[in-house]
Design brief:
Layout lengths: L29 H4 L12 E4 L5 E7 L6 E7 L6 E2 L14 E2 L5 E6 L2 E6 L5 E3 L7 E6 L5 E5 L2 E6 L3 E6 L1 E2 L12 H9 L1 H24 L7 E2 L4 E8 L5 E8 L8 E5 L8 E5 L12 E6 L4 E5 L13 H6 L11 E2 L11 E3 L6 E7 L4 E8 L4 E9 L11 E3 L5 E5 L6 E5 L6 E2 L7 E6 L5 E6 L8 E6 L6 E2 L6 E6 L5 E8 L2 E9 L10 E3 L6 H4 L7 E6 L6 E7 L10 E7 L16 H12 L3 E5 L9 H5 L8 H16 L2 E11 L1 H12 L6 E5 L10 H8 L6 H7 L11 E7 L7 H13 L5 E6 L9 H19 L1
Parallel strand pairs: 13-14, 40-41, 40-42, 42-43, 43-44, 44-45
Antiparallel strand pairs: 1-2, 2-3, 3-4, 5-6, 6-7, 7-8, 9-10, 10-11, 11-12, 15-16, 16-19, 17-18, 19-20, 21-23, 22-23, 23-24, 24-25, 26-27, 27-28, 28-29, 30-31, 31-32, 32-33, 34-35, 35-36, 36-37, 38-39, 39-41
Amino acid sequence: MRISYATLAALPLALLVSGALAQTAQPLTLADTMADPDWIGPPVERAWWAWDGQRVQYQLKRDGGIIRDTWQAGVAGGTPQRLEGAARADIDAINPAFDAQRARMAFIRNGDVFVRDLRSGALTQVTRSNDTESRPQFGPGGNLVFRVDNQWYQWRAGQGVSLAAQVRAENDPAKPPKADVLRDYQLATIDTLRNDRAARDAAREQDEAWRMSDGTRAPKPVYLGDEVEIVDSALSPDGRYLLVVTQAKKGEAGAAGKMPKYVTESGYEEFEEVRTRVGRNEPLPQKLWLVDVANAKASELKFDKLPGIGDDPLAALRKSAKLDPLKGDRPVRIEANGDGSGASIHWSDDGRRAAVLVRAIDNKDRWLTSVDPAKAALDTRHRLTDKAWVGWDFNDFGWLADGGLWLLSEQSGYSHLYVSDGGGAPRAITSGKWEVSQPTLGADGKTFFFLCNRKWPGDYEVCAVDRGGGAVREVTALDGVESFSVSPDGGKLLVRYSSSYTPPQVAVVDVNGAGADAGHTVKLTDTRKDEFKKREWIQPEYVQVPSKHGAGVVWGKFYGPKNYEPGKKYPIVMFVHGAGYLQNVSNRYPNYFREQMFHNLLVREGYVVLDLDYRASEGYGRDWRTAIYRQMGYPELEDYLDGLDWLVANKQGDRDRAGIYGGSYGGFMTFMALFREPGKFKAGAALRPVSDWSQYNHEYTSNILNTPELDPQAYKKSSPIEYAAGLKDHLLIAHGMIDDNVFFKDSVMMTQRLIELRKDKWEIAPYPLERHGFTHPDAWYDEYRRIHELFNRTLK
């Protein structure tokens, strides 16, 4: 979640004026807002370039199911075509890898590796298997390496596929066994046993000698022992070296939860194993190995030279909790983000260097290191340390053709792009109170393209800057860019963009065009259905709420009537987005598109609605993100109380008729608002809410509150169940019973606590077949019918 500040004057006038509430032939109903989103039209989920740069391909969900079809459109526009039958055999794919001359690209389609010649268009299927290949990378001389699980293979045109490296979590069969007096005596006594063993050893040694001399055998396996498990690996593109990440095989992972499922196909109660709770245990420490493939030799790369590795940022908390001090260096893991989707090892195309991102398990430090295989040691290139926590986003990095290294870092307080030339310290090539994300190096090897939000925090464009620094220019003028990719020849961008009532679409933009020049942009799709397009929606008014608590301004989306009745006070509904670190106040299509339609319905019925990017939200910089460290629910509630004051002062809001609602983190905040500030909100709906942070997961919660054992006060301060005695207003709790993110147990515990406190004016609605994100329209409708009735009953 990120933020930077922009002045009100910098906003386009159109963004500052609330859209009119249009009259439609068929008024919006609650059933419309909660219907299957097929009636809106499918978003473009993934998009990529066809090999010739003259066509783009993308995926759309088929109505009434979960099947994704592939469509194709020409870059000049025209009617898109769905690819079927034989045409599907010629589809390209997302995230291709290019060779040094950009004459060929490799990609993964349907789990197999393909190589496309960009001069002729010829397509070669490299693999045809039931395995799932990944991570293709070209190396010197056209060598292509790719991964199947933790086995690595290589391919050259005309030479086929061969096993490139083997590493096994087993004991080396040639390794002498541990000393044993009985065995030694037996072999010394029985000649036949001793001779048979000698013959087997001689055959194995001869086999290995032939393997090394005639070049016809696969590389010799490297054995790391049977007490580890292989977590990740990355082969150099020349096939000479392999980096391997391991952790203890029998490490204590903590007790997993058992989630009951009551409505099942079997007719019997069933139980699903779910994640462990925060601190029950921490993620296992990892080790990093450098494997010399030709010599079948593995060397451990030590972390002891990382700057600050021996420091304990949590020493004071450890002492206060009467825990033993940290012994030795802090444990680390090789990971770029919390869900394992981001690559944490990148080899240079020539195979001479690797870059590895190392993260302390306490998440107070992140080191970007490089590995020179000849030295078999880690060299620290950049250290990012944070007294709160290092974010899971903004960890992109990679190599430049001349051996330089590029990376993102929040070290200035905002995510920006840095370049390290040679072994030098990284230098910033972007700066300012805005953020860089999704950087990619252009085909020329000199120009970086990236997402930026320079105009105001919710306005996302593609920007470009030279690797040497200098002026940043905006390439697009679409306001709500979601993602992009560079064409094979480097001359165009394929851009996914959206807006408040337009799900993600695709356009092609000339990289040399000025962003303000619409003539350089060709919009290729509009997947919205006619029924949705013909409605005129209330455009959100992007507002800046002054903070009375030192936060500057809080950005929000306001929904209100076109014309206010003089002297009338309007009932208020405040919406709290989920995920904590998420941005909902932007020009993009919201994650909460149903809620946005619900807000239209509320305005038509006489309410005013405010949706805020409270502190902790994405898009506004490091300090905004970490403002909630050890005090979840405090800065955010201050922001909502400031928003309430703003509505009363500026939008004829009625302070005595205010309600609040939200899901997940929004449900947690609804609890905190009603429990900690009773009377401020007459009603609240807490959907899939966290009631006790000690029940949540480690990767998210330990960043913000540390662990319950280490920092019990942070958990006590931040958990709504501790404040339940404060409830005096109307409360609805709604929760999916098979939620494997925020467990239904949270709402069950809160239910028991409210019973014990003899509270009234509250209710709970359980949904037996829903997980964290509801998927069935009936459940969506029932949940929002209850919210609608709650607000109408208590606020109107």
